[in-house]
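User: Please predict the structure of the protein below. I'd like the answer in structure-token form so I can feed it into my own downstream comparison script.

Assistant: Understood. Taking the following sequence of 335 residues as input:
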Amino acid sequence: MTTVNSNPRCFYLGVDAGGTKTHALIADESGSVAGFGQAGPGNWEGVGLDGLTQSLSKSISEALNNSGLTVGDISSAGMGLAGYDWPSQRSMILDAITPVGLDCPVEIVNDTTLGIFAGASEGWGISVVSGTGCNCRGWSRDLRREGRVVGGGSYWSGEYAGGFDIAARAMQAVAFEWNKRGPATALTAAFIEFMGAKSLNDLIEGVYVGRYDFSPEIIKLVFKIASEGDKEALNVVRWAGDQLGQLACGVVRQLQFEQEKFDVILIGSLFEGHPLMKETMGETIHNLAPDARLVRLNAPPVVGGVILAMQTDGLATQPIRENLIASMAERNREV
């Protein structure tokens, strides 16, 4: 890729800092990618504020080095940060960004919001995340009103259908076979084999006392058993889709989207697990908002950070968005 040297063009920095990685992307005002960098986890709740600073510094420095630019060449920055959940945290998070040395306006949002900027055809709408956890956020057409769920509350806030929730719901079906509250399910034999248990009794006792534990791989197993037609596994997938749809419906009501045509951006690996999850989610949403369009995010969320940076600088980003996505895809092919 051609190195970009300092020149009169404007350059914009986007950052996506999550629980497993941090990405930094620099692009010019036309949407052409200039540099990319990455680092480890950036969720301050997991790595601390110093850890956030370190991940931002490493990823941004790498992006600057790859582009041939300096910090002074950046016109504005947009960051989607996992763990930035409430306005009361804004000052604390900005203080953690300060040591990076950016000499430009910086706007920060929760990382879930980046999916809207990166994936929505008109730059507003709702995003729903289903990965390790789940989350949902939305922005009104004029980008002045935000809708949201608690995000990360899980049981006490009634927000389900991240990976752990799906695994737990499947284990519940196995427990119901054991105590005769529910029917037999192929999940039982699959879980016994996966965890290395001797029997169903051993599995239930072992999970209870902590001898057996869940791993991320068990979620793939649930989807596999569902794809083989097991009724209880399909019920788990259907339940997950409905729960995610209900998260979106709450945000629809907050933003009064019932009669709007808008995009619901789907983010996270679990949407690849089984088509019934997306189908059920769509049914739940369409009962309230019939013109909603469910769209799988087809660009890295960090693209949304660049768009946020451009908006912060007053650019009209819709004409630029597709070029930015295409330029990022081209970069990935070259790497």
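That's the full token string. The two ends are 9 Å apart (CA to CA).
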